[in-house]
Design a protein that fits this description.
About 70% of the residues lie in helices and about 0% in strands. It is mostly helical. The chain is globular, with a radius of gyration of 24 Å. Keywords: Membrane, Transmembrane, Transmembrane helix.
């Protein structure tokens, strides 16, 4: 009898534990689904109502353009109505690998053409990290004692990369590094399309996502940016793809292989750009959710591997450069300074870059402790001010968000032309001149604004339609978007900073646009349909 009672109690405990885990995962998934619906819907409304552009002087000051906002919103709505009602053109079901080849070839061609049109030397941080890479390769270590690398040692990952890359192809061979970036864009978009297929199991959604990938030019144009952004995003998306494979395999050996690959790709991504940490956090939360739902220990081991390699990627580049140069990098500007910048007014826009802490760092002989104290004081003062003036705080953060998320070019022109010496511009090039300050500049901005609005509308609609039917792994990408949104609400702001997260909306936008085309606006009333009608409505995805 005692044995039977113990067995019954053990079974009840197991059942209760399983039920608790299931409820925790379900509630967490619902929270992410509804929060993402709210955030993306608000960004959608903001993008339809506002458009921010940079002046022709290329000062990094985003200014509202009411004309562009009105024209792009009208065009977006007309295109959407045409998309819904013109049903003669059917969406082909093309195999994903064929779609990926087309998009990869397209992005390589467009990226190469763009670099040929705006074949200008890099400026600002781009030039600094490339120059330091050259000095490292040539064993000229004295410059590493200067303020820049002491203040920003997190750049050492890209410095090491460029030291090797420049030694192979030439340190002023900007075409080579931009072709490398174009290849990274192709890998990123290919990974995103494969993720779309695995998340939605619909070839039509993959095809729509491919069209959006090709239409969304800022990401492709960023291949011209000599920096770690694009390679980091490419490897982050490869890591996300490995996690999707891991979530769908039943073999422990393959799960382990995908988990290791995910961790390694994250290691490379963070080596190129430490902001890959936002992707890491989203991936870690997804690993935890998968552990709770599947009860497989291997998911937890994968999460641990990702965390260990993150620490390695964050510290190893600086350790290598320090070992090679014999110079310590223990005076880095404290991270809290960027949080303080994110709370300050700026000549550019609320929460955008201002030189206060850079100036203080130099004035106090590169002393990070003084900068830390100043940053804490700024945060305290701004927090008190916002608490006393909530309306001002609301305006500050609303303006900070829309200057990032409603700037449709994501600084893809500014990173090319901003800070350029006028002598470097090729006045004989009609295309370069037109993109710089002519008709193509205006047309490109309007085009980007229309595509951005359609992406927001589609993503918001998908999040609304399927708000009760998401699986944890299907929300992995939108979770990273929420992380990027939260991070740059707190951190220093710039519109190009949020580009790595915005592109993750494309799969959801594709799903939402298919919903709109297949069922039109009446599908908003899905809850009033019969069960058979509802099943028919939802059958084009695997969300149920």
């Amino acid at each position: 009898m005692f044995y039977v009672n113990m067995t019954v109690m053990r079974d009840l405990t197991t059942t209760n534990s399983a039920g608790w885990l299931h409820r925790t995962t379900r509630y967490g998934t619902s929270f992410i689904a509804y929060l993402s619906l709210v955030i993306v819907s608000l960004l959608c409304i903001a993008a339809l109502c506002f458009t921010f552009v940079f002046p022709k002087t290329y000062a990094e000051t985003p200014l509202p353009s009411h004309v562009c906002a009105i024209v792009s919103s009208i065009c977006s709505i007309l295109l959407l109505l045409l998309w819904i009602h013109y049903q003669k053109w059917t969406i082909p079901e093309i195999k994903t690998h064929s779609v990926i080849r087309v998009v990869a070839a397209y992005s390589m061609i467009v990226g190469t053409l763009w670099s040929a049109i705006v074949n200008l030397p890099p400026v600002s941080d781009q030039l600094f990290v490339a120059w330091y890479g050259e000095q490292l390769a040539k064993h000229n270590y004295q410059p590493f004692l200067a303020t820049y690398m002491q203040q920003f040692p997190h750049q050492n990952g890209y410095v090491l990369f460029y030291a090797g890359f420049g030694s192979l192809f030439g340190f002023s061979n900007w075409t080579a590094v931009r072709l490398f970036n174009a290849a990274m864009v192709a890998i990123a978009l290919g990974s995103l399309l494969k993720l779309t297929e695995m998340m939605f199991a619909s070839q039509r959604i993959v095809v729509i996502c491919a069209v959006l990938c090709m239409a969304f030019l800022p990401f492709i144009f960023f291949s011209n940016f000599v920096y770690g952004n694009i390679p980091s995003v490419a490897f982050c998306l490869l890591a996300c793809l490995m996690q999707q494979y891991a979530s769908q395999t039943k073999k422990t050996s393959r799960l382990a292989l995908y988990g290791i690959a995910c961790a390694l790709f994250l290691f490379i991504a963070i080596w190129f750009k430490p902001n890959g940490m936002i992707y890491l956090i989203g991936i870690e939360i997804t690993w935890i959710a998968l552990t709770l739902t599947t009860k497989k220990l291997m998911h937890s081991i994968a999460a641990l591997a990702c965390a260990i390699l993150y620490v390695a990627a964050s510290t190893l580049p600086t350790a290598i450069v320090s070992s090679q140069t014999g110079i310590s990098f223990d005076k880095a500007e404290p991270k809290i300074a960027w949080i303080a910048i994110g709370m300050q007014d700026s000549p550019l826009a609320p929460g955008w870059y201002n030189p206060y802490f850079t100036e203080q760092y130099a004035q106090h002989n590169n002393d990070p402790e003084i900068v830390d104290q100043l940053a804490r004081e700024v945060i305290r003062q701004r927090a008190e001010f916002f608490a006393q003036h909530p309306a001002t705080a609301l305006r500050f953060y609303a303006h900070k968000e829309i200057t990032q998320w409603a700037e449709p070019t994501f600084e893809s022109l500014w990173t090319v032309f901003g800070g350029q010496d006028s002598k470097a511009l090729d006045k004989d090039s009609i295309l370069q001149s037109s993109f710089h300050q002519g008709v193509l500049r205006a047309a490109y901005t309007l085009w980007c604004d229309i595509i951005q609005s359609l992406i927001y509308i589609g993503a918001a609609f998908a999040l609304w339609m399927h708000r009760k039917h998401w699986k944890p792994e299907q929300l992995a990408l939108i979770l990273i978007v929420l992380g990027g949104f939260a991070f740059h609400t707190i951190w220093e702001a710039k519109s190009d900073y949020v580009l790595p997260y915005f592109i993750l909306l494309l799969p959801y936008a594709a799903a939402g646009l298919l919903d709109l085309r297949t069922h039109g606006l009446p599908c908003l009333q899905l809850k009033h349909l019969t069960q058979s009608q509802r099943n028919k409505t939802m059958q084009h995805t695997n969300l149920d």
